[in-house]
């Protein structure tokens, strides 16, 4: 009997599963980049395209313009990128153009970045405080967070200031959220009293 073979070997599959249309494009680019051993290069190129779309209003508007014919966008992406970018990046951008999805470029790039962070073992953590944290406080929180993530994972810490939490901290690690703020405690008490 014939055995079913999957088209993607395990070594090329992303370490996390992302869903949705943008994730499909990102997954395909990730697999193609993995097979061609150009994951980091494609990440750099996609970040460059994303930055250009953000910084250059004309280019950003071109990507989002639905009135330009698909074939015109495909040829424009090919002529613009084929000399400067890897075949994987050119293929992704021309595929997005051919499928009228260039407006989603930023979302596709964000999904690809998520896949790369998972590959590198990075876990994003956000600390929200009422006042800016000192370096010592940030280091202490980062050290405490290492116990909350699996071994071998690296915590990428970002901080935000939100005076409306009044005091304390709000911590988000991946999809987990912990509210240790004064405003959170007040809300809990007021809900209990009502």
TrEMBL record:
| Pfam families xrefs | OSCP
Q: Where in the cell is it found?
A: Membrane
Annotated InterPro entries: ATP_synth_OSCP/delta_N_sf, ATPase_OSCP/d_CS, ATPase_OSCP/dsu
Which family does the similarity line name? Belongs to the ATPase delta chain family.
Q: Which UniProt keywords apply?
A: ATP synthesis, Hydrogen ion transport, Ion transport, Membrane, Thylakoid, Transport
Q: Which organism is it from?
A: Corethron hystrix
Which GO cellular component term is one of those annotated? Answer: membrane
Which PROSITE patterns does this chain map to?
ATPASE_DELTA
Question: Does the keyword Cell division feature in the UniProt annotation?
Answer: no
Q: Which GO terms describe its molecular function?
A: proton-transporting ATP synthase activity, rotational mechanism
| The keyword Transport is annotated on this UniProt entry | yes
Entries under HAMAP family matching the protein: ATP_synth_delta_bact
- Put simply, this protein is called ATP synthase subunit O, mitochondrial
């Amino acid at each position: 009997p014939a055995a079913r073979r999957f088209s993607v070997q395990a070594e090329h599959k992303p370490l996390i599963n992302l869903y949705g249309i943008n994730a499909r494009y990102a997954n395909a680019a990730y697999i193609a980049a993995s097979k061609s051993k150009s994951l980091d290069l494609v990440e750099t190129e996609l970040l460059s395209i994303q930055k250009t779309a953000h910084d250059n209003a004309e280019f950003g508007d071109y990507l989002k313009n639905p009135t330009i014919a698909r074939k015109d966008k495909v040829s424009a992406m090919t002529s613009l990128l084929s000399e400067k970018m890897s075949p994987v990046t050119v293929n992704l951008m021309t595929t997005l153009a051919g499928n009228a999805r260039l407006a989603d470029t930023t979302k596709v790039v964000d999904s690809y970045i998520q896949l790369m962070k998972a590959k590198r073992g990075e876990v994003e953590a956000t600390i929200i405080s009422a006042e800016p944290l000192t370096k010592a406080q940030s280091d202490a929180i980062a050290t405490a967070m290492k116990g909350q993530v699996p071994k071998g994972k690296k915590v990428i810490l970002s901080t935000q200031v939100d005076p409306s939490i009044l005091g304390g901290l709000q911590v988000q690690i991946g999809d987990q959220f912990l509210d240790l703020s004064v405003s959170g405690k007040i809300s809990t008490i007021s809900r209990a009293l009502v």
